[in-house]
Automatic annotation (TrEMBL):
Residues 23-126 form the Cyclic nucleotide-binding domain. SMART domains: cNMP, HTH_CRP. It comes from the Bacteria. It comes from Nocardioides massiliensis. This is CRP/FNR family transcriptional regulator. PROSITE patterns: CNMP_BINDING_3, HTH_CRP_2.
């Protein structure tokens, strides 16, 4: 069940949710504060659902803190993760642009908070600030390109290339041994995101470990010891 949405009150000097969102990035601080005044917050516990498949979606959902997953249920009853939303990412643009119902579930994978914009308010904001509409269109176009790239990788059947690309996309910290990254979700969820099975993902990780490209560390961290090798692997057709 999704939680009721309440009016958002931003404290002076607070971390504005909208400040993290690329579609609002072209606004000055005063305009961002004005935009934040029409946002409504929702706070989620781990595992809590904010959107159900088939439900009408009348808000644009913007991740503020934590992480949520966008997923669908396949014909055989398995969960397929479509994408992850971190701070600044958003969901619900299709409902705003076409009026369609959601085809996905949106669930927190850790404690999270979101700010939401009712479609009427979002339409008014775009009318007052056309740059929001242009940035929204650009983001949707980027997602389409990302989806096409992901589809091509799935069709190729090369799980190792998809895994390499995913690991390289994670934020990391360089040290003398290589690049340390944190796996943001469980390996079974990473397998779902990469359109493969947990068993296949484990085999590919084992191959990367055996070849010295990566090392597994404690706490869900990985050390990418040879980023160049991982890059070459990600570029394989």
């Amino acid at each position: 069940m999704s939680r009721p949405l309440l009016p958002l009150v931003e404290e002076p000097g607070s971390d504005l949710c909208v400040a993290r969102v690329p579609i609002f990035g072209g606004l000055d601080h005063a305009d961002q504060v004005a935009v934040a005044a029409v946002a409504r917050p929702v706070t989620l516990t781990k595992g809590e659902q904010v959107v159900a498949a088939g439900a009408p979606l009348r808000q644009l959902l913007v991740a503020h803190t934590g992480m949520v997953k966008v997923a669908r249920i396949t014909a055989d009853g398995h969960e397929q993760i479509v994408r992850l939303l971190g701070p600044g990412d958003f969901f619900g643009e299709s409902g705003f642009l076409t009026g369609s119902r959601s085809e996905h579930f949106v669930t927190a994978v850790e404690p999270a908070s979101m700010c939401t914009f009712h479609h009427d308010d979002l339409h008014r904001l775009i009318t007052e600030h056309p740059s929001i509409g242009w940035q929204l269109l650009r983001t949707v176009s980027d997602r389409l390109l990302e989806t096409e790239t992901r589809l091509a990788a799935v069709i190729s059947g090369d799980v190792s290339a998809r895994l390499a690309g995913y690991l390289l996309s994670l934020p990391g910290r360089h040290d003398e041994q290589g690049l340390q990254v944190q796996l943001p979700i469980a390996k079974k969820d990473i397998a779902s995101l990469l359109d493969t099975t947990p068993e296949s993902l484990s085999r590919q990780l084992r191959r990367l470990r055996d070849s010295g490209v990566v090392r597994e560390l404690a706490g869900g961290r990985l050390l990418i010891a040879d980023p160049d090798a991982l890059m070459r692997l990600s570029e394989q057709p």
